[in-house]
From TrEMBL:
Belongs to the 'phage' integrase family. This is Tyrosine-type recombinase/integrase. It comes from Holzapfeliella saturejae. The lineage of its organism: Bacteria, Bacillati, Bacillota, Bacilli, Lactobacillales. Keywords: DNA integration, DNA recombination, DNA-binding. Residues 32-111 form the Core-binding (CB) domain. Residues 132-323 form the Tyr recombinase domain.
Length: 331
C-alpha cells in the first residue's frame, strides 16, 4: 500500500493512531522510534549508519510533540508550532534546523509515495549565524598551550601529540579517533596521515605530518607497550578501557583540560577551536584561501571565506581612525 498512490480520501483519513498500528511506531518519549515506516524512509535515503541514527534522533521529538498535544492530523501549522516550541526550550538554531530538515525529508518522502501530503512546504528555515561557533587561539595562545603540557608522563606525551597534530592539520576529533598507526605513510618525501574525513566511507585523504608533529607522535608511541600497525594511533589509559581506541569525548576532554590549565575557560574554546586555529594561523602566515580550503577539506569555499572575512575585519582599523580623528579635532 505504501508503494502505491492512495486516494485523497485515504490521505485525509490518515492519523497517528492508525499509523502506529500499521507501522508499529512507538511515539512515547521513553521509547525510541522503531517503525517499519521510518525504516523504509531511511532505507530510501540510503545513508550511513551514523546518518541513520541522526535522522531517528531528530524525528523522535516531533512524534513525541504530536502525541503530547494529541494532534491526530498534523498540518503545516503544527510544524510551525513545533518550531516555536523548540525555540521556547532554548534549543540552538542549528539544533532546530537539523530537526526541521529531518521532518521535511520525512514528509517529502511520505508525499512521494502518496501516503500523506508534504506539510512542511513553505515552512521557513531558521536564520543561522554564518560564523564559527568556536573561537580560534592566537599564535601566542597556541604556543603557550603546547609549552604548558608536561611531556614526562604518558598522558602528557599523548596530549602533546594530539594537540600538535590538531593545530597543524586542522583535524576533527572524529578524525583523530579513527586514525590507526598504519595510516601514517610516506607520499614521496613527505610523511602523511591518511584519514577518514567527515562523510567519507574510506581513508582516501591525507594531511601532512610536520617534523615536529612526527617527533611528538613517535615520542608518545614509544611510551606504549607492544604496539601493532593496526592499533589505534591514540588509545585510552583508563582502567575500564585501557589500550582501546580513544573516544571523541576523551579527546575533547584532553584538549579542554589543557586549555583550562592555561586559564582559558571560555565555552567558545574547545577541541574544535584547534581546527579554527589551524585555518586562521595558515592564512595569517601567508596561506591562500584555496590552500586553507584544501587544508581543512571544506567542500564549499564559502565556509573557508568565513576565515578570510574575519581576518579582513580585524585588519579594518576604522574604529581607531575615527577615535584619532575625534581627538585631533579637539586639539
Amino acid at each position: 500500500m505504501k508503494g502505491e498512490a492512495m486516494s485523497q480520501n485515504n490521505r485525509s483519513n490518515f492519523d497517528l493512531t492508525t499509523l502506529n498500528q500499521l507501522q508499529q511506531i512507538q511515539l512515547t518519549g521513553d521509547k525510541s522510534i522503531d517503525s517499519t515506516l521510518v525504516d523504509d524512509f531511511i532505507n530510501f535515503l540510503d545513508v550511513s549508519e551514523e546518518t541513520s541514527k541522526t535522522y531517528r534522533k531528530n524525528l523522535k521529538p516531533f512524534f513525541t510533540f504530536l502525541e503530547i498535544n494529541q494532534i491526530i492530523n498534523p498540518n503545516r501549522q503544527n510544524v510551525i508550532e513545533y518550531k516555536r516550541y523548540l525555540a521556547e526550550l532554548n534549543h540552538k538554531p542549528t539544533t532546530i534546523q537539523n530537526r526541521l530538515v529531518a521532518i521535511r525529508q520525512f514528509f517529502k518522502w511520505l508525499n512521494s509515495i502518496g501516503f500523506y501530503p508534504n506539510i512542511t512546504e513553505n515552512v521557513k528555515s531558521m536564520k543561522l549565524n554564518h560564523t564559527f561557533k568556536k573561537d580560534a587561539l592566537t599564535a601566542k595562545q597556541a604556543t603557550q598551550l603546547l609549552h604548558s603540557i608536561d611531556r614526562r608522563t604518558k598522558e602528557g606525551k599523548r596530549a602533546y601529540a594530539i594537540i600538535y597534530l590538531m593545530v597543524t592539520t586542522g583535524l576533527r576529533t572524529i578524525e583523530i579517533n579513527r586514525a590507526n598507526i598504519e595510516d601514517m605513510r610516506n607520499v614521496g618525501n613527505q610523511f602523511v596521515l591518511y584519514i577518514k574525513g567527515k562523510g567519507r566511507t574510506e581513508k582516501s585523504e591525507y594531511v601532512k605530518i610536520t617534523e615536529h608533529t612526527l617527533q611528538a607522535i613517535n615520542d608518545y608511541l614509544q611510551s606504549r607497550e607492544m604496539i601493532k600497525a593496526t592499533d589505534p594511533l591514540f588509545v585510552s589509559n583508563s582502567h575500564n578501557s585501557y589500550n582501546k581506541r580513544l573516544s571523541t569525548r576523551s579527546i575533547s576532554h584532553i584538549v579542554k583540560a589543557q586549555l583550562k590549565a592555561i586559564n582559558l575557560f571560555s565555552p567558545r574554546l574547545t577541541a574544535h577551536s584547534l581546527r579554527h586555529t589551524a585555518g586562521t594561523l595558515n592564512m595569517l602566515s601567508g596561506g591562500s584561501l584555496e590552500e586553507t580550503q584544501q587544508l581543512l577539506r571544506h567542500k564549499n569555499l564559502q565556509t573557508t571565506l568565513i576565515y578570510s572575512h574575519a581576518l579582513e575585519r580585524m585588519k579594518n582599523d576604522s574604529e581607531n581612525r575615527i577615535d584619532n580623528f575625534i581627538n585631533q579635532s579637539h586639539e
